[in-house]
Amino acid sequence: MSEDLERKSTPWLTAGFDWEGVAAALAALLIGMLLGALWSVLFWIGFAVMVAALLSGRWSKRAAPDLANGIIAPCDGLVVSVSREDPPSELRMTEKPTMRIRISSSPAATNRLYAPIAGSVESLIVEPGDRSVPLAMRPEDDGLTVSYLTFESQDHQVGVRLASGGLGPRQEIEVESGDILRLGRVFGKRRLGGWCDIYVPANTGQLIWPGQTLVGGETVLGRLKSSSDPDLFEDVLGVQEPDEIEEEIVDEVEDEDDDYPEPDEADTPEDPAVMFARLREAAKNKPAGD
Which residue ranges does UniProt annotate as crossing the membrane (predicted)? Predict the structure, then answer.
């Protein structure tokens, strides 16, 4: 991968537009120009439709991290909240409780959706929306186009709920139940932004926070529980109570104190004056013939 980038003169050029979006934008511009000859306001309406068509067709190539048991963001957006919530019944998740990560995407966000984990698609439900609802202002509004997908890997489940406006072909899911996906593979499109709720196991190590900007297909949300990585999960850690920690500290201090002898047991050096007095006394008592 790095060698391929080294050979490119413009490695930063990873974005593009779907041909459907480009075709719709050109058609809107042409119609706007023709109708604008009759009334100038119609030209600007066509111009606005052209911009919306280009935004809906915008995509970007992403490089998924090489991370075992990793969970990545399925789309671009901003983290609105992270909380413990029960998954909706449409996801058919058996693993509870779960942590819900709510993501909001702007209409200018790229349209590709990425597999959050490496595994299989266990469940897929798509609910068409109402054409009278052009934008998803709130994730629970009526008339939205909503898709429910459940991914499974090694007995762990991750659920994704996608919500967008009901006007036009806003969501295209390109996988079916039973398909096997690698981490970060594109599984569909969602045009002109919307909402994404991702439900992960509650013991997943949290690596994101509200207000953080996510890059779909690249930003790591956490890692599924693994025996080789116990330090990443709060539920696996054996957290000691404060009283236990205090008792251990007291025991260590007492052990350190035991290393020091009592004052009456310590060996203190003799006074030099006393030593010289003993030598002089010994010299006086020594016989003269010696």
Answer: 22-55
